[in-house]
From TrEMBL:
Gene3D superfamilies: 3.30.70.100
Protein name as catalogued: NIPSNAP family protein
InterPro entries with a match to the protein in the record: Dimeric_a/b-barrel, NIPSNAP, NipSnap_domain
Residue span(s) of domain NIPSNAP: 4-104
PANTHER family, A to Z: NIPSNAP-RELATED, PROTEIN NIPSNAP
Originating organism: Modicisalibacter luteus
Entry similarity comment: Belongs to the NipSnap family.
Length: 105
């Protein structure tokens, strides 16, 4: 399994607006294309105003195929534009994680 771990740092005061827009418009599109949402979290301690989400894939090729389909979806393109115009996200990072032989996932 490959896990895509993404961390978004929001502009202070914009976390709620980001989550509302994402839940209403972005999440349904991602679930349609990416499918395996492992978790979606906000930070309680440490760096504040962060959203962390994890998506599971069978392989790097599976991830690439799914993400390519999503990036070509007109609804996703419209959502990304709307999200960018809202100016909620300050910084983004992502890591691809490979599970170990003894991992429960």
């Amino acid at each position: 399994m490959i896990v895509d771990l993404r961390t978004y740092t929001m502009v202070p005061g914009r976390l709620k607006a980001f989550l509302e827009l994402y839940e209403k418009e972005g999440l349904p599109i991602q679930l349609k294309h990416l499918g395996n949402l492992l978790g979606y979290f906000v930070t309680e301690t440490g760096t504040q105003n962060q959203v962390v989400h994890l998506w599971g894939y069978e392989s790097a090729a599976d991830r690439e195929r799914r993400r390519t389909a999503m990036e070509n979806d007109p609804d996703w393109i419209a959502y990304r534009r709307k999200s960018a115009e809202a100016g909620n996200v300050q910084h983004q990072t992502n890591k691809l994680l490979r599970s170990t032989s003894f991992s429960p996932l």
